[in-house]
């Protein structure tokens, strides 16, 4: 995320010409720049004028397409559709597939462009990390676009939410890439790649708007149905027996059903123990040994101890489960942070990308401290991921719910500034959200949701949680202003429902990000909360803020509707509420 102690950045005048940063394959004639700088400027102006005239002329002759109605970038939509042969003979899902495939081509070009900049020796470590983040994010985008095409080609009416989810994530990746350059001082290479990334985002935005026009297949209750499958089977998890994968024997079922972890019942695939009594002494080694693209649950039992390492569950490590000995007993701890040169994205103590991840009975901590600014404990870009009875400890940016669908149950989350942030579709149930004592002159903000587009199906839903102060702040809550959230991106969306809001919550409830930014486009709601901080009498009067009075509106942010959790969380045997009751 952007540096919170300075919410506003003035543009920095470049110290070198754009052409000096041209990729190695560029055919720029440097002798001309040296001998005739005036001619170069004149030529650039003429080229720019020519491009503007041509773009204007072409936009005037683009035909009107009904599929482009409601898109944020209708001219781009029309120009894209104009290149599709036999357009009138294609169905809407087929048209969207073509647009998504064209988007993938642009993503590959953007990735190649980023890779070219890795050759510049003048780049500092932070910019190199940011570029590598971009390459990883663009690679993930290609996977997500591929999933979208696959779903659209099979039974699109049964996969509308799935397609919206992966397209939302692919757009988020582009902005995450650019966010990595936000804290760089001096010459910033991010400005030279943002044009391509914005173009990709606009293409995805148009695809999202068109997907919204596909009528989803629903059941008698009005809920979207997936493709008809064996009721004891779930896509990506293999055959299910009574809610568990067929490979899970009676011992593992007892483990998943037990009210607390009992090591005597664990039959893991691998065990991590610092004392050498397991298969590995580090978590990273166990993850590396796990199978790639597993369709079966792979359990890694992590014995009690403090594991001082940064752990990444990569995109190929699917259906991994971490089982610890309990909060505060099994601890993964590190201290990467932005002040020391890491990007926010790369600062995570535990980063989870592989889909279908389950974390249970563990603590994840970033121990960098409040003066190190952004320092992530957990980053999650794993679709259909679940965390049960875990704790996440940090200060600024503790929990990065980056993208895709996530669920947290009975978890403890500690932090100060924007300590739950990102652009996933995420539901928290029965969790404790603890605001800690920040640095002097700082405020506490629980959430900073990052939705960039009104058609993204993302947001933060906090249901039946306790929103209160940590022990270091509880004795003097009046010394720090504490807010429920602020809008990180233009269409930020956050809802607090049926939760206990303690007295530390400022009466206004919510904090602006920068002036009037996003106040009309955000969606912030409160529904049937209790506690001394729950009064809405003096809340902000922003156009996008609302006190929700309708159960129908509130239901949109429940597990069943918001993350389609009744279709997948039950397979983890983690308890959850599907609706409001």
UniProtKB/TrEMBL annotation:
Which GO MF terms does the UniProt record name? enzyme inhibitor activity; pectinesterase activity
* One of the GO biological process terms: pectin catabolic process
Domain of life of the native organism: Eukaryota
EC code(s) of this entry: 3.1.1.11
Protein's pathway = Glycan metabolism; pectin degradation; 2-dehydro-3-deoxy-D-gluconate from pectin: step 1/5
The Pectinesterase inhibitor domain is annotated at: 59-210
Which of the seven top EC classes does this enzyme belong to?
hydrolase
Q: Tell me, what's a Pfam family for it?
A: PMEI
Which key words are in the record? Answer: Aspartyl esterase, Disulfide bond, Glycoprotein, Hydrolase
| Entry coiled-coil feature ranges | none
Ubl conjugation: is it a keyword of this entry? no
Under catalytic activity, the entry for this protein gives:
[(1->4)-alpha-D-galacturonosyl methyl ester](n) + n H2O = [(1->4)-alpha-D-galacturonosyl](n) + n methanol + n H(+)
Q: Which residues form the active site?
A: 418
Question: Belongs to which family?
Answer: In the C-terminal section; belongs to the pectinesterase family.
What protein is this chain from? Answer: Pectinesterase
């Amino acid at each position: 995320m952007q540096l919170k102690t300075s919410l506003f950045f003035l543009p920095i005048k470049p110290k070198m010409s754009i052409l000096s940063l041209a990729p190695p394959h560029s055919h720029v004639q440097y002798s001309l720049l040296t001998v005739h700088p005036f001619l170069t400027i004149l030529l650039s102006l003429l080229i720019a004028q020519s491009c503007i005239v041509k773009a204007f002329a072409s936009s005037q002759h683009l035909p009107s397409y009904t599929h482009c109605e409601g898109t944020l970038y209708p001219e781009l939509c029309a120009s894209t559709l104009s290149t599709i042969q036999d357009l009138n003979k294609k169905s809407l899902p087929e048209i969207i597939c073509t647009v998504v495939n064209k988007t993938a081509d642009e993503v590959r070009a953007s990735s190649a462009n980023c890779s070219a900049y890795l050759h510049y020796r003048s780049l500092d470590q932070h910019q190199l990390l940011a570029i590598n983040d971009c390459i990883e994010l663009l690679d993930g985008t290609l996977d997500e676009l591929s999933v979208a095409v696959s779903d659209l080609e099979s039974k699109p009416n049964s996969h509308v939410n799935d397609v919206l989810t992966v397209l939302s994530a692919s757009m988020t990746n582009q902005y995450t890439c650019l966010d990595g350059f936000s804290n760089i001082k001096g010459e910033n290479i991010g400005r030279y790649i943002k044009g391509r990334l914005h173009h990709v985002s606009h293409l995805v935005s148009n695809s999202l708007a068109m997907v919204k026009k596909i009528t989803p297949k629903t059941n008698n209750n009005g809920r979207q149905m997936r493709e008809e499958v064996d009721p004891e089977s779930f896509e990506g998890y293999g055959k299910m027996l009574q809610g568990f994968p067929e490979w899970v024997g009676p011992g593992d079922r007892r483990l998943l059903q037990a009210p607390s972890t009992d090591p005597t019942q664990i039959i893991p695939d691998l065990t991590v123990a610092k004392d050498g009594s397991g298969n590995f002494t580090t978590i990273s080694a166990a993850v590396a040994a796990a199978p790639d693209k597993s369709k079966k649950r792979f359990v890694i039992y992590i014995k009690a101890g403090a594991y001082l390492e940064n752990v990444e569950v990569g995109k190929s490590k699917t259906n991994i489960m971490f089982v610890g000995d309990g909060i505060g007993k099994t601890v993964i701890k590190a201290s990467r942070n932005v002040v020391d040169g890491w990007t926010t994205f790369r600062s995570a103590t535990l980063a989870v990308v592989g889909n279908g991840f389950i974390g249970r009975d563990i603590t994840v901590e970033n121990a960098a401290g409040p003066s190190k600014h952004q320092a992530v404990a957990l980053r999650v870009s794993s679709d259909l991921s679940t965390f049960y009875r875990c704790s996440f400890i940090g200060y600024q940016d503790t929990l990065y719910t980056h993208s895709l669908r996530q669920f947290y149950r009975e978890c403890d989350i500690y932090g100060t500034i924007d300590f739950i942030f990102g652009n996933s579709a995420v539901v928290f149930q029965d969790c404790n959200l603890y605001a800690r004592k920040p640095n002097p002159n700082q405020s506490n903000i629980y959430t900073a949701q990052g939705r960039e587009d009104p058609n993204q199906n993302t947001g933060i839903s906090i249901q039946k949680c306790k929103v209160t102060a940590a022990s270091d702040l509880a004795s003097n809550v009046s010394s720090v202003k504490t807010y429920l959230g602020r809008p990180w991106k233009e269409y930020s969306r956050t809802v607090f429902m049926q939760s206990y809001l303690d007295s530390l919550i400022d009466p206004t409830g919510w904090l602006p990000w920068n002036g009037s930014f996003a106040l009309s486009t955000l969606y912030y709601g409160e529904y049937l909360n209790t506690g001394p901080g729950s009064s809405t009498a003096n809340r902000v009067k922003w156009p996008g803020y609302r006190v929700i009075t309708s159960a129908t509106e509130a239901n949109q942010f429940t597990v069943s509707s918001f993350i389609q959790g009744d279709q997948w969380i039950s397979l983890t045997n983690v308890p959850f509420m599907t609706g409001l009751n």
